[in-house]
Design brief:
The structure holds two protein chains of two kinds. Chain A is of the alpha+beta class. In chain A, helix 3 crosses helix 4, helix 9 packs antiparallel against helix 18 and helix 14 packs across helix 15. Chain A folds into two domains: about 160 residues, Penicillin-binding protein 2a (Domain 2), CATH 3.90.1310.10; about 350 residues, DD-peptidase/beta-lactamase superfamily (Beta-lactamase), CATH 3.40.710. Chain A contains 19 helices and 22 strands. Chain B has a domain of about 80 residues. Helices cover about 60% and strands about 0% of the residues of chain B. By secondary structure, chain B is an all-alpha fold. At the A-B interface, helix 1, strand 3, helix 9, strand 18 and helix 18 of A face helix 2 of B.
Amino acid sequence: MRTSFNRRLSLLTFVIIITGVLLFARLASFQFQLDVAAYLQRLASSNYRIINDRFPERGRIYDRNGELLAANTTEYRIGISPVYISNKARLARELAEILGEDEERILQLANSRAPYELVTRQPVSAEVAQKVARLNSLAVTIDPEPKRIYPHNSLAAHVIGFVGWEGNLRRGYVGVEGGYNDDLAGQSRVTERSRIPFDAILGEPPPPGRDIYLTIDRSIQHLAESELYDAINRYGATSGTIIIMDPRTGEVLAMASYPTFDPNVYFRANQESIRNPAISDTYEPGSVFKIVTAAIALESGKVSEDSTYYEGSPFRVVGGRRVYNWDRAAHGSQSFVDILVRSWNLGTTWLAVDVLGPTEFYEGLRRFGVGQPTGIDLEGEAAGILRLPNDLYWSDSDLATNSFGQGLTVTPLQMLSFVNVIANGGQMMQPHVRLKTVDGDREYYAVPAAVRTPISADVARRITDIMVQVVNIGEGKDARVPGYTIAGKTGTAQIYCATCPGLYDPELSMATFVGFLPADEPRVSILIKLDKVGRFASETAAPAFAQLVKRLVVLMNIPTDAQRAELRAQGGDTSLIVKR
Amino acid sequence: MSDRREPSTPIRQAVPQLPWRSPTQAVALIILIVIVAIFIGALYLDQATVTATTGSNLLELQRTREFLQRAISDMQARIAQQRNINNLRGRAQQLGFVPAAAQDLEYIVVEGYSPIRATPTPLLVPTPTLVYDETFEGWVRQQWDLLLRQFEQWMNGDSAP
């Protein structure tokens, strides 16, 4: 009997010791992470871990001075798990009070057999979510949902774009949101989440998307938008565009178009207002294009400022088509300077047909980049249309009409880029809206780059002098601003008639003014385009330009000519003045 | 009883004769095992508790971090909304400010002033990996050339390098 008891006792002892050793080994595996433990952990994790993609916070968009233009915020979706609710009536009452929802509906949801019910139809704010969290109920789930917001509403909406949905994923559309979507969105990261309570899986969240600083200055942008809106109302235009650039670097300081949209509620806007007309809409530029023709003619060396031609008739027939001046009159002997100052169509026709000829003229247009996109870093840029002599629909009359900006189309940005060539000593800088990209603690600057040199610096200076005369004594007189020497050109382009197909509208036109200042040391170039106005650009776009410049020179710290002369006399370098 | 062997010592003789010896040994052994088991179990429980508590704290910290990040983003967005130009302009007008004209500005020359301009990010040049590729023949040639140079300098009257 005793022997049997001893034997059983020994067996029990053995079992307990083995159990103890196993427990000790398990304990040691916690401490020393034995390979066996790691293996078992991996094996087990497949059952109790959830693996999914985690998306980073979207990069922000700032203006050139660090003002936030596109930000991130969070909204919350409130849901309940009916199975965990202990007092359904009470929870329904409390949630209804906080969320402002119908108590009966929430009670119905609480009584459902579904594992999860969404209580709020629309996401709620952080304040509301905090009130719900204070209920401290295990049955209530509060799921954060990222939201893109644009603090300045419609300001620079066409440049910034908006974030919408592509299936279940958020994606940027149009503008910078679209063009730089990959940078802003960042890279998602595979993350693990444990089903076991209190089991924390350490893992870094994915790094946020890159922040993008734009060349846009929100103050200048605001000024451009408000002046555009005023001009449209004042002159009865239907729509319009203002672009303000630094011709020395190709930086876009402001790009405003009307009608516009609020990217916070992009889904309420119509498709037409979402498109950026400054880069996507092409139009016949009209007389502002004479700058290009004149520059090509001067560059050829076949004419000079003293060259003259003779207008014996109010019209000239080219390729079977009559070409008139804007006043439908003949003016006898006119100089090369008069062609721009008085904006004679017959003058540019003389340059294109008699001086240059089709080969040299179109070669010059190609050097300027007419008919080619500028390559700006925004989504949806159009190239414009330029028919060449070998094209099917080109006719001899195109040589004449193209010389004064009819029969070809450009975008407003292209047109301003051509003017920038004059302002920047013959070099066209790459237009761009990205100033720098910030990735963590690294900054990547956009380096200003020259893309074309269609004319020499000397020709650019000579054309500038003529453009100054356009503003001082010519058709652009209303663009003058006291104290500043401005170079500019007006353009009133005919538009096709909506009620008389195939013909130009006898009443309405596109009024454009392009210019830069100070003429001898350009810091800013501006294009103003007003659509479907009933008057000449000299009466609409030119005074709108002056109105804009009066306030712009203050914002940009551009001294008057007298102030600059004084600063230079004191040994100052006026090219170093920047906006602070 | 007659075949029982004689104990070698008095103690050895006494111990087997104690009637309570075997049960006491067994109970002591069981108690010892139970104590060891309890000790190990307590250690295990303690470890598990520490792990769970740490996990809970980590989860809470993660939640706090995410909440704070969201709060920062919200706050930045609110600040940006408050800094809306229309708000600033309205506030400025309330305070009696009026837009400045070009003639109201005064410019002065600041000696040595250099505005901050966009500068290109310098290209990253990879650090070259040093590889020892000298051969004996190359070393001998190098020494010979050095010797020759020194000799020529000596012949020309130059000072030694």
